[in-house]
Amino acid sequence: MLRPFIIAFSVCLLSTPAFAQDDASKDLLDSLITDMREASMASDPISAGFEGDKEARRRLPDVSPDAGRRQSQADATFRSRLASIPTVTLSDDDKLNHALVGWVLSRKELVGPIDGSRIPFTNDSGFYNSITYTVRNTRFDTAQDYYDYMARLQDMPRFFGQHIANMRRGISDGYTAPTEIMPGVVTGVRNMTEVTAENHPLAAPFMDVNPRIDEIERAKIKAEGLAVINASVLSSYQTLLAFMENEYVPAARPDIGLSSTPGGRENYARLVKYYTTMDITPEEVHQIGLSEVARIRSEMDAIIAAVGFEGSFADFLNFLRTDPQFYATSREDLLKEAAYIAKRADGKMPEFFGTLPRLSYGVIPVPQEIEQNYTTGRYFGGNAKQGKAGNYVVNTYDLKQRPLYNLPALTLHEGVPGHHHQISLAAEQKDVPEFRQNLYPHAFGEGWGLYSEKLGVEMGIYQTPYEDFGRLTYEMWRACRLVMDTGIHYMGWSRAQAEACLLENSALAKHNVKTETDRYIAWPGQALAYKMGELKILELRKRAEDSLGEKFDIRRFHDAVLVDGAVPLGILETRINDWIDEELVREDD
Length: 589
Fold this sequence. Notes:
Blueprint: H1 2-14, H2 17-43, H3 45-50, H4 65-83, H5 92-111, H6 127-136, H7 143-154, H8 156-173, H9 182-191, H10 204-207, H11 215-251, H12 264-276, H13 282-306, H14 313-322, H15 331-352, E1 361-365, E2 377-380, E3 390-394, H16 407-414, H17 419-427, H18 434-438, H19 442-459, H20 465-490, H21 495-505, H22 510-522, H23 529-548, H24 554-562, H25 569-585
Parallel strand pairs: 1-3
Antiparallel strand pairs: 2-3
Helix pairs in contact: 2-4, 4-5, 7-11, 8-11, 9-11, 13-20, 15-16, 16-19, 16-20, 19-20, 19-23, 20-21, 21-22, 23-25
């Protein structure tokens, strides 16, 4: 970065105090980042445990209103401290750190008034099953690791009790989840309740104790662990299930949209800004969605014509949804196909990226206790410090709803070059504050995942017109999200109105349409991140191609997008504009 260095050097020559100001500003910024990290780790023992804090692995978070107020007060102090730091003489890297700290604090302030702790779950995930993810990503090497885990499980009655209190507060405020999603949520809780201690997902570590531990100690760990499951875990789930069935479900709101809650439209507008990382309105997002639906539909029609299918668009969708050639016949076959596509993508990565992560990833099924209402696939991040690989998670429930023509797009999104590649590169950044290694603005991360699906065309991953139609189905899925999410939560749409976009314009299986609509109902705003982020990345790529001409290098562009980790779209645009200027004056290697 030649030019910023020259500018800083010239300033230093003109004025000795600039060194003092730069050092003082950097010290203030570094101190703020350190204090914010310490506060975050203190309030989030899950993350602290992943970072190696053994004591934190004995605890679950404090989710009480008092804890929330303390965090809000601390954030207000952090914002004041950040505003007092002069930025003129900070290095480019520290200016980026300053901007990202400011963005993190501003986002928390933006959504703070919503008080989302009153609905601590979505249609398929929540506090009641997130602990299973933590267990799968924790290493159990010593006996103490197991006893620390037991202590954490013994904290569950307090943890669940705080969540129940928060939900009761939501009932009093008229801020509850919609009735529409509650059957699936209750089923998810019941699946964690009506099992024996030995078969409980949280008992898995005790049922397969590390063989490097002494045999007598292993038996002791298993016995004590199962006793904790019986005494603390199952009782917590039993209390939660009774609360859900007897208190919460009767009080759940009848309307699906957030706009039906107190201050709902204003809150939704906040969430639109939060998840898109843009200053944009729900109406503007809705119109972008309608435009994208029309564009993608025309590309779908072209494929139907090219394969010579005789019949209507609806007939073609029915053909894709019902013809046996498009479906695996066993869970294992579906996983094998996903793994094969993942390895084909791995083999193409060096052609499109100059920098590859060290962390590997696997292909695993969605855990059976949550698969029925879970999305079609997801990425579970790894942890190099814990010796845990990332995982591309494939839903193998109800194979007739898992078409193979969608699998290449899903694999590219969740594995490489999508989430695994982007998240692992961010985690492996050197010489940056640790918060940047885990930062995840939704529009960047999910936008990159959707961009990766389209990049698969250039990578040669789609081998048939049907797979390319599957890719367009997935893109239509994300375009419809813009229409459906804003329709549900801002415009008062019914479920049938929302589902029509996917049923009439995509080859998504009807079960997936149902679970995805449940997701949008349960998680307002998040679904907007994908298409809005992808559109910005495509816009920046075209800008780079037009500006650089023959000097454009796809590998260097992709590295430029990802090199700083995940950032808000506004900061990404600034960084890519700077990169284009640097490429224009760069001498050929």
